[in-house]
Amino acid sequence: MTCHNCQTKCKRFGKDRHGLQRYRCRQCSKTYLEPHDRPLDDMRLPVEKALLCLQLLLEGMSIRSAERITGTHRDTIMSLLVLAGERRERLLAEKMRGIPAERLEFDEIWTFCKKKQKRLRFGESDEYGDQFLFVAIDPVTKLVPAFAVGKRNWSTTVPFVQQVRERTTGAPQITTDGFKPYIRAIDDAFGADVDYAVLVKTFGTSDDGAGTYHPSRIVGVFHQVMFGDPEPRFISTSMVERNNLTMRMQMRRFTRLTNGFSKKAANLKAALALHFAW
Predict the structure, then answer these.
(1) 247 in a domain, yes or no?
(2) What is the pTM of this model?
(3) C-alpha to C-alpha distance for 33 and 23, rounded to whole angstroms
(4) Gap between the Cα atoms of 199 and 106, Å rounded
(5) In DSSP terms, which residues pair with 15 in a beta bridge?
(6) Are residues 103 and 32 in the same domain?
(7) Statement to judge: residues 24 and 149 lie in one domain
(8) Please, which residues have CB within 8 angstroms of residue 144's CB and are 6 or more apart in sequence?
(9) For residues 236 and 105, is the Cβ–Cβ distance under 8 A?
């Protein structure tokens, strides 16, 4: 090891808390660490404990539960989540390219950020309140080529569908629910290279008595062909709806009927990127 200031050879000067060799200059007394990788940037958390924290989060555990098990402060775990999520988002943007897709299913899943929509005050950011996760899945390979978070409106739908088009190849058969912005967005992004149908489910009231919590009973299912010539037996959103269950089980902030939720949009997006990359 050579001193950057004096250009003289340094002598060994013990080791740091992580076992890395330290050196000190004989003239200016400045200390250095041996060259090493920094997978966590400036975080001082040991890599082994960081991996444990991320594994617990990926298994559906809450931030505070991971804090109690690992002995790592919740703010540190949250910073680790954001760091890992941002890196996984860049990884997905790099690797999810040229994906051959025969069929695709689109759906949206509800959550909220900081507070529910009815609690919002005038002038508060659009990042708060109801948020919807748009997901596209290939029912053949179970791959999720793209996802997006935002309000359930045109402004979120268009970039989401465009991202799906950029990451996939071929002329896939697409099935969505009855959300109307999909029609124009898919037409603009895919053009004639798509077979597109809409599947709509009609729900009635639950047959259970008062005081119970059960989903409403399906009373009707119908589909409508929008573009191209889709195969009727493949007009389905069952796979993407089943994926919604996986997300609600694997991410604590999506679990229903609990007090787990996201307080910042950045934390929500980081958790999603980490989940889909994993």
Answers:
(1) yes
(2) 0.83
(3) 6
(4) 11
(5) 21
(6) no
(7) no
(8) 135, 136, 137, 138, 243, 276
(9) yes
